[in-house]
Each structure stands twice: as structure tokens, then as C-alpha cells.
Amino acid sequence: MGLIRFVAMPTETARAFQRGATDAYGLLPERKVCTDDGFQCRHCLRHIKVGSACLTLSYRPFPELQPYAETGPILLCAEECERAVETDVMPEIYRAGTEWLLRGYGHDDRIVYGTGAVTPKQHICTRAHELLQREDVAYLHLRSAKNNCYQCRIERA
């Protein structure tokens, strides 16, 4: 077993959106046809197949509103999909990018200052392990280095 684990969006959350629940802004998810092989589902952590329906919605991966509870756009498979297995192996969809933003959050769900950095993909697991050794860091977010979009959560194994 590894020292870290990549954690996808909870199934209950994904199912709610796939079944028509409103997003973090109180809007219905936008349904469209996937036209690009770069669309990534935050639940199955796979590329959404070109020609398949997908959802675009605002997502807040925090339990409650507070100043550090970032909200942003994500994509999901429009149809129900299997949740990605929690693993210490970086999901394949994140190996294609060159750099990612890795940021630590405390037990109070606030950013731990000094933990955020654009990180080359080959250093994500090492840097995640280093950050999760700190007592003040409860979990990490993996985000797009270019657009800051939430990708997944990284936790201690």
C-alpha cells in the first residue's frame, strides 16, 4: 500500500448531478456532447468519450461555505459511471498534462499557506507525500495549473 491515495468525487455527489441536482451556484448542469478527447470526468477519472454526453457544472469540493471554499467548473460523464478506485498510482488522465497545481488544506478546510505550487507531473506523488507528512495538512487538491480547475483530492493512505 502506498503512502498517498488519489480520491475521486464521491459517488453520491456525482449521481445527484447526473440525475439533475443543481450545482454549487444553484444551476442545472449544462448537458452537451463531448467534442474533445481532453474532457475529464471527476468521478471515474477517465476521459469522456468523444460523442458522449457530458455535464459541465460548478463544483465546490468543500463541506461548507467559507472564504477558502473555491468553486469552479468541472466535467462529468452525463450517464452514470463507475467511481475511480482509490489508489496511490496517479490516474492515467493526469499523466498527459505537464504540470499540475498541488495545494494543501488544513483540518478546517482552509488553504495551508506555502503549500501551493505548480508541480511537474513526475513530481506529484513525491510532493504529495511530503506535504501530507505535515500535521497542519489534512488533504490536498490536484488542480489544473493553467485554469485552476479542481481535478481530485489526494489523502494519506
From TrEMBL:
InterPro entries: DUF1203. This is DUF1203 domain-containing protein.
